[in-house]
Amino acid sequence: MDFERGWQFGLVILLGGWGGGNNGVPWSANVFLVAGVYSLADGRYRLAVALGFVASALGLTTWWARPYDTIMIGYYVWQASLLTLALGAVWVLRRSPPAQAAERDNGQLPSQELVT
Q1: CA 30 to CA 53: how far, in whole Å?
Q2: How many domains does the chain have?
Q3: In whole angstroms, what is the distance from residue 36 CA to residue 14 CA?
Q4: Domain range for residue 46?
Q5: Does the pLDDT value for residue 51 go beyond 60?
């Protein structure tokens, strides 16, 4: 198999990129992506914004770690998912009431959730 081109190479990086080498820094964006998604689901919008932008920046290091001619369409889909988290979290943060967003970011529950 030719691992320098094709979907097989992308799958190898996805599954084993954490091992380091030239793929370790860009791959670490996946850790921030997962943490950002959990933060967004938990209502910690400011943290999700920060994690989303860190993930996007780490994803852009692919341009440093890989030769341009080996970057394929899967990279762009992956980078779009990182940016979607960051921009989506900004959008949710702007649409949430200010008091609710501040309470959630401080780790306090909104007053509506305290009523049983």
Answers
A1: 12
A2: 1
A3: 18
A4: 23-106
A5: yes
pTM summary value: 0.69
Backbone angles phi, psi at 44, to 5 degrees: -95, 80
How far lies 89's CA from each of 23, 42, 58, 106, 112, in Å?
27, 12, 17, 17, 22
Q: In which band, very low, low, confident or very high, does the pLDDT at 50 lie, cut at 50, 70 and 90? A: very high
What's the longest Cα–Cα distance across the chain?
Answer: 60
Q: Cα separation of 23 and 65, whole Å? A: 7
Residue 60 falls inside a structural domain: yes
Say if residue 64's pLDDT is above 90.
Answer: no
Query: Which pLDDT score, from 0 to 100, does residue 39 have?
Result: 95
Q: Give the amino acid at 17.
A: G
